[in-house]
Q: What sequence folds into this?
């Protein structure tokens, strides 16, 4: 990016002074061997420390991403890393929000993931090629910043490489590739077009780097004209970042400045406390409404599919509130190819070593499908908060993180609704006792349910705070009065039907 | 399938005698409720017993697969099952062997998986539509039988539903679907074509059922004219199969009749014992050959990609034999987007509750890509055999199972090679000691390595047997003389280059 560069530039300064080309080459080789050994060691240390490392490669076509990634991984133990390409834009990728294909591949603790082309393609390649409008790019910048912040806030090391070459150098490389029959297919018309409009493309790239060069995830701009110098710069930058992360981790937990504490009883009262649990339907009313709504939803489901609208429904609520029953009534007339119920239990050992949103990313629906979550990512600000499974800073940060992820979903066209199925403490006791007495239901009740019940008041405060902080216009919370199961089931169905009808009307209007 | 049926027919006989339509309906409803409660209970019992259950739905278009699957899952706890469609034929699916998309989704122990359209599409829909030739169908029948046997031998319950309707009934249903604007898009030209050639299609289906109706995985043919009778039949059949599996499991491990034991010292001598470890190269010879081979492989890699040939390379060998070093030399000039090194460690808790091949299925390469396995599925007949992690029947069965899977890969166009990197006991001792003395290498050596070394002779017998039983024409074992690391690396590269060149020549000839 020569003079006009807007990010830091990496060169191996101390080598530049070498007095001859041969000597320079020799020095570089020795230095590369040193950095390679250092990387191997740091990889093992990061593994021990459970630090996840994410390295992205973007930049100009023919800048040598493939070559450089291969050099980098030669220094690494293959048991500890994965390489993925973000270039892949198959059906699965295109039918999900653009961050999805990356979010589900973020590294577990102690592992390294390398993306050959990252989420930046959305605001770089795709933007230049006209697949991303300026308005979409603005939204994408916001989504990217929020996404990167979530990753680094969770302790992930994020290293973003931008491989830079000049217009002339690029042209030279394209021509060389085209000359050989083994490589000519690698140069596409789109590649040439970007070379022809290099200045315009460069401006776009500069804007991108300017807008996304953050403290937590700075860009590393690598002059890639000289391949071995670039390789050395990359290895050094990765090793430096890993070393820094290890030092920070060894220094102990970050002392975060938390937001001003609100008054202690701020959430004693809230949406849950205020819900009117006397609402009910009798059996006839229930049957009539349920039948009509189920038939309506069946029809709407096929419309969703045709219009490729994804739907995310989250269910939370007190134990025995009737989440399962409500979900069954919701799904009983749906085509199973078009919906999925995703139950959330304690994380297994693969899920436990990933970012807490990772397992939900893995279940977000593709366009035209419904995903129903029986318990959700809100566990972060309920059970994880109250049982101390995460730090105070972690759950306090989570409100914004969750809002950002849900915004990313709705921005990409999804309907997102969260239900809190509410009952009172007496009703819960009645249902617990009923379960204990009924042999067919005994398996549904455990000692843990009784233990959780003792923390009712603490949970009520957490739930009130959660609903107030994460009920947004795009992804609202709906508190469902659940003492009457009939009423609750109908209200859930009605809410879903209304929201889908509204969305369909919007989409049809746009078309 | 009326008179000409070649499989068992399911009807709810005891209900047929009911004296009136209303009474029949009522009886059926009561029976359905009973079966539903039974299913819920059996699901919990199978979960406790760790029994995986796989249910497939195939049959005639518009026979009501979606509806019936949805009815079935209403009776199940959503925390315990997944529904997948085998109709999906996106890029990922088409670039893998046809069993792949199903193999990676087989249930973990204690879970239920339902396929809406299974692997049978290859010999049913795709065959009728002309996408599967008769020759391919023959091969596919073999692959299907081998695949199903592996699953059921491992203790999986496999329930295959064939939903049957008559030509007239199908026509009626198509017409009804076409009348409504909400459902007309569901009926395709291909659907109508299959209806018009119903007799031909029926013959094809009968052949399929005849050829794949096995004891371990019998077909259940469900007359689907009456939806509620069919639903009841399906629920009953699933519950029956689960109950049978529970009874069998409770009866204790199966007393399998093992193949006639071979003489005790049959594998004391074998390919490994015979390998000539004096072979070596000096540094100059090594450098020269290595450079040439690496460049050649780089070129061949791009040809593989263009011709969409997948390559599977398995590496096994004594500890410290030099697998890692050989792999690094193999990959150092390759484009990282086109290859993947898959290290195999002890299974994690997700892998442990799946079929032992499952985690390897997940890593088999798509067309045009290279997958390199650092240790492989042969762990089943080495470490699992010798450490008692599986039963004798399990590992004895594995030779054939592995041959079948590798045949499936090569039949679908893959190059498959397995390397045994061989060193002698003295050389291993030298390398272990070297690792202990070198601070940079100490992490590579553990007490377990020394413990494994004590079992050298037992391993040698197992390795000899393994190589003799699984070195096939389509997927050969190559014993690599490894006392000289230089020699070993060159031989690996040379073998890979030769095999790929041969394959490319074959493919080009076919085109």
A:
């Amino acid at each position: 990016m020569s003079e006009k560069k807007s990010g830091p530039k990496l060169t191996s300064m101390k080598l530049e002074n070498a007095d001859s080309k041969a000597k320079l080459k020799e020095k570089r080789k020795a230095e590369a061997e040193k950095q390679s050994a250092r990387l191997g060691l740091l990889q093992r240390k990061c593994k021990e420390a459970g630090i996840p490392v994410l390295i992205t490669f973007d930049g100009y076509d023919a800048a040598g991403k493939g070559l450089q990634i291969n050099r980098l991984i030669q220094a690494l133990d293959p048991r500890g890393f994965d390489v993925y390409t973000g270039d892949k834009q198959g059906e699965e990728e295109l039918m999900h929000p653009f961050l999805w294909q990356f979010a589900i591949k973020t590294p577990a603790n102690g592992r390294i993931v390398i993306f050959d082309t990252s989420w930046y393609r959305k605001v770089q390649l795709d933007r230049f090629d006209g697949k991303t409008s300026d308005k979409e790019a603005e939204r994408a910048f916001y989504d990217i910043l929020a996404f990167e912040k979530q990753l680094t806030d969770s302790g992930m090391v994020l290293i973003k490489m931008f491989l830079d070459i000049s217009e002339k150098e690029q042209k030279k490389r394209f021509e060389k590739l085209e000359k050989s029959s083994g490589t000519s297919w690698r140069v596409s018309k789109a590649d040439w077009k970007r070379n022809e409009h290099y200045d315009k493309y460069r401006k776009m790239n500069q804007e991108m780097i300017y807008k996304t060069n953050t403290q937590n995830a700075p860009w590393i701009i690598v002059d890639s004209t000289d391949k071995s110098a670039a390789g050395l710069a990359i290895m050094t930058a990765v090793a430096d970042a890993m070393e820094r992360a290890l030092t920070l981790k060894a220094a102990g937990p970050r002392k975060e400045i938390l937001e001003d504490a609100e008054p202690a009883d701020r959430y004693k009262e809230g949406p849950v406390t205020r819900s009117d649990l006397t609402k009910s339907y009798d059996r006839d009313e229930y049957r009539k409404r349920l039948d009509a709504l189920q038939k309506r939803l069946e029809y709407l489901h096929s419309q969703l599919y045709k219009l490729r609208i994804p739907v995310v429904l989250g269910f939370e609520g007190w134990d025995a509130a009737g989440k399962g029953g409500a979900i069954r009534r919701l799904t009983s007339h749906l085509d199973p190819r078009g919906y999925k119920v995703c139950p959330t239990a304690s994380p297994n050992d693969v899920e436990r070593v990933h970012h807490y949103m990772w397992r939900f990313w893995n279940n977000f629906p593709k366009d035209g499908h419904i995903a129903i979550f029986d318990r959700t990512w809100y566990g972060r600000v309920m059970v994880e908060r109250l049982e101390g499974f995460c730090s105070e800073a972690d759950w306090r940060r989570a409100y914004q993180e969750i809002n950002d992820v849900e915004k990313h979903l709705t921005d990409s066209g999804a309907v997102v609704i969260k239900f809190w199925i509410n009952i009172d403490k007496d009703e819960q006791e009645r249902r617990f006792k009923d379960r204990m007495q009924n042999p067919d239901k005994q398996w549904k009740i455990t000692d843990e349910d009784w233990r959780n019940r003792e923390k009712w008041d603490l949970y009520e405060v957490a739930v009130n705070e959660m609903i107030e902080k994460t009920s947004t216009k795009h992804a609202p919370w709906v508190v469902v009065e659940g003492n009457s199961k009939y009423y609750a089931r109908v209200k859930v169905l009605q809410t879903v039907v209304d929201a889908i009808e509204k969305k369909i009307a919007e989409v049809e209007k746009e078309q």
Observations:
- Chain A touches chain B through 48 residues (CB under 8 Å).
